[in-house]
Amino acid sequence: MIDLLNLNSAEEEIGFETIPIGVTGADENDNIRITFKALSEVKKIKAQNAIPEDYGLRVGVKGGGCSGMSYTLGFDATSKELDRIYETQGVKVFVDPKSLFYLMGVTLDYSDGLNGRGFTFNNPNATKTCGCGSSFGV
After folding, report:
1. Domains of the chain
2. Phi-psi bin for 130: left (phi > 0), alpha (psi -120 to 50), beta?
3. Which of 22, 24, 105, 129 is the most exposed, fewest CB within 10 Å of its CB?
């Protein structure tokens, strides 16, 4: 997996793509959103690093970090057996079932402002976060 949490650069775009999570009882606010800016950056990183077109973007969560959980983001050659597989604007997105519930309602964005560059997760379900920007608690 190629780690994307600390890579740089993007072009300005507004808006987002919605990935329906497909969980019984969930509503549209629970879907995962990826901004056009983040999608553009993913495509740019793939091109700059000669990452094969069929690789997917793995979005996930793992235990650890300052606040208890950390986001993961990278490229994988193939999906795993129980992954949810989505495609938006030519980008395949892999999400494992355990991470799916922590990612409900999350917006993945890319920031290149004065406070730093990189992918950011806006999680309305997080009850605590820390300064690193990639750690949260629920």
Report:
1. 2-137 (2.60.300.12)
2. beta
3. 24
